[in-house]
Amino acid sequence: MYSQEEADIITKGIELSWTAWGKMRGQQLFTGDINYVKSENGKGIERIFSVSIEENTPFRIQQMISYIKAGIMPDSMLITPNTKPSNLAEELSNKGFIIDGAAPCMMMYLDDYIHQNHERPSFAISKVTDIDQLADWVKIVNGALFGRELVSLEQFNDVLVLDNTHFYLGLLNHKPVTVCMTIVGGDTSVVDMVATLEEYRRNGFASALIHEALTDLRLTGVKTVSLRAEADGVGVYKRLGFRECFKRIVAACDWKNVYKKACPCFMENELVQKAKQIWEETGNGADFVTEMNRQNVIGRELRYNSDENAIYLTKRYACDCGGGCPSNETLIGKRCHCEYVNHLAEYLPMSYCQCCGTFYEPMFFPLFGDSAEITPVHTVLSGSEECVFKIKISSPHPNCGA
Asked: From residue 400, how far is each of 123, 149, 218, 373 by CA, in Å?
């Protein structure tokens, strides 16, 4: 069990960490009811680290997912007991996100910390103060924690020079083997980036390093310390006096399922039945398209390409259907149907509109089978003047000939 105070302490630690990462070059920190760090060039760490949506909740959650699909927001987020709405993890799971709640968030009151003997033969601890030491520190973090070069030396140097951060480097026989850092905010701090080279683990080196960091924090008046643990580090932290408070939930976008489950739009059954009736009456692709256009069933125009065995569907403009975003005078505002992004002026990746494939499936899958492929060809959101989708019948259909 944990108290609200303890949840607040851990949430503050999360904020301290991500605020620091947001000060790296090539990173941007965005704050509001959704706080996140986004990489400008794909070189760095990014995540939605705080969500507090209290008004217009269904729309704002859907818009957040839309921003993730558009690449505006990161595709993963932290969920804590302070997250609002409290059922966000369940909502995201229903919309195609993968929910991982295996790792705990932990904290400690430093007054309760009992000094232990963490001395190790031939092991020394150094505070990182220059670029050469930092290079050793970064190499261990990227290799032992991230498994790849996720953050550059220059980016971590941007954090090292902040006045509330301290980097620690553990050396065995002068060889760098373990690292950690602390970030302080008032009378609380977070321990972060704890990493040890694999061949030197389970020898007490990380414990000795964290002990040094905790001792320094207590000397500077810090009262509480928090951290987010990986499963294999929980034992180390418990022996130091940290205790588990709650599980750290990470919701990560499962792209295939998100495009299938997250779109709130749906095809009216009346239109589905009308298309089915026309198909039964015509029996071939060319006549089907001709009659669909004559009866104005869906879209501005359908075109059948017999060489490709495909139907091209041009969507109606949103402004012609009573939709769009009146305050946005661009083509996106006038012609895009998606209310979650049609207020934007900048173009989005065409992949954003893959969800339209799911929208059209109820109409075309019963006719051509669920192996048919529905993909965007060009869209208003991606810079074209109209939205065109291709319904490709993957294998020759007995009734699709002209």
From this structure: 75, 51, 76, 15
